[in-house]
Amino acid sequence: MSSMLRLRNSTSSHAFTLVELLVVIAIIGILVALLLPAVQAAREAARRASCQNSLKNIALAVLNYESAFKELPVGMTYTASVPGTGVGNLLDYDSTWTIDILPQLEGDAVHDAFDFDYPIRHVLNEPARSTELSVFHCPSDSRNKDKFQGTGLGANWARGNYAANVGAMSIGSVRLSANLSGTTQPSMNDGKDPAWAGRLKAASWPASTRGAMGPNASVKLSQIVDGTSNSMMLAEIRSGFDATDPRGVWALGMAGGNLVAGHGAGGDDNGPNACYAKADDIPSGAAISFSCDTNAQALQDECMSCNSDSFGFAQSTARSTHVGGVFIAMADGSVQFIEEDIETGGEWGGCCKAWDYLIMSADEAFKPTGFSR
Amino acid sequence: MIAKRPFTSSSLALGFILVTCVTGCGGDTAQVSGHVEYEDGSPLVGAIRVIRFEPTEDSKAVVRKVASSPIADDGSFELVTKRPGDGVYKGKYKVTFTVLESPATGVSLIKPEYTTAMDSPLEVSVDHSGADYNFTLEKL
């Protein structure tokens, strides 16, 4: 009897009470809650590093291409040219810089799968353009898994997060604010942007404001007279808001697709992660069904605002989901993190601030007339 | 109860100060809003209407970045530096404007001096939130 009692007593003194269990669970819960943000931060840091590495690899591939062909790849190629409407509303994009450098990225098979007798939007090119290439994906961007579905531009384009720098001018007939370009807009009859054809001699906005890779045109490294370490060659971009948003598509050679353009002074897409109301200008209508207006508030909340373009020009700026800035690759192949705090001219502001000088590759500290500050 | 009452009201006051401070009394930035019109009281017209605060050479702003805002139909604006709601870094600024007939024509509808920081006659110093910034422009 007494031994049984002792046994029962000792058993009950070893069991956990409900309160003790709850306390232990609570402590574990607090510890996990403390740890979880650190784990998430470590995961994002790893994604960021991977994102930076991919950009470096692509920049080196571009420079290898330059070594082989003595010129940087052409940003976008298109044969059709409609004066007045501009390239912003065209559909028949041909090859583009990302396709041209595939052999330098061990992507010969994908490169050879393209049929260059047809525009990239043609159904024959769908297998090639829908190929997911991990080097073009920044893992920090959660939206680069869903393929882009164009209406006039065709279905199933794989996403990409890296863009070539076209320059301070938007793609197409050049229209920038009056205090930069004047009111007369040069036409583009020969299929080249005026800045890239070397025809724009306006004192307020000359051809030297080009970037690294243009529409139907490109430069040799020796033409980047600001110095290859001072000039932006590639920049990060974010993949589209939904499947119909054409931004962030590796084989789509247009502003926002795999090009950044018109992302400096004189417009409303000025600066990295520009958060102005109608920042990026992307084609609309027959080519692309995405409506910037319908999604305006959601896009603004994410700092991805855009304007469904009706002017025939296209503009798009560097964007990322990293905290505080974007990665860019300079023309010497180095990768830099540019903070959002970098000096810009602001919405429709005048030229030229630190961000503008990064974009323009031959400006030699250019200041437009009337903007000597 | 009686002894407790002063404590309650002072903590309320403290809470009120804290709440006010969260929205403006501390930090490097200030919320800036206001109103723009022509001298004769008529509103600015044009498809693009933007006001900018551009830091001066001697501005003490921690981050030297242009703050800007679209001007609403009624002339009101609320400045943004990077993200909506972030306000303006405290310091001295030149005030400039862009008013265009349309982005396609690029025709400016205001006097050229208002478009550049170098020529603009308007200069402000931003040091606290809540102040109203009102500007009247001479007509072209």
UniProtKB/TrEMBL annotation, chain A:
Domain DUF1559: 40-343
Stored InterPro entries: DUF1559 (IPR011453), N_methyl_site (IPR012902), Pilin-like (IPR045584), Pre_pil_HX9DG_C (IPR027558)
Gene3D superfamilies, per the entry: Glycoprotein, Type 4 Pilin
PANTHER family tied to this protein: GENERAL SECRETION PATHWAY PROTEIN G (PTHR30093), TYPE II SECRETION SYSTEM PROTEIN H (PTHR30093:SF2)
Protein name: DUF1559 domain-containing protein
Automatic annotation (TrEMBL), chain B:
Protein name per UniProt: Carboxypeptidase regulatory-like domain-containing protein
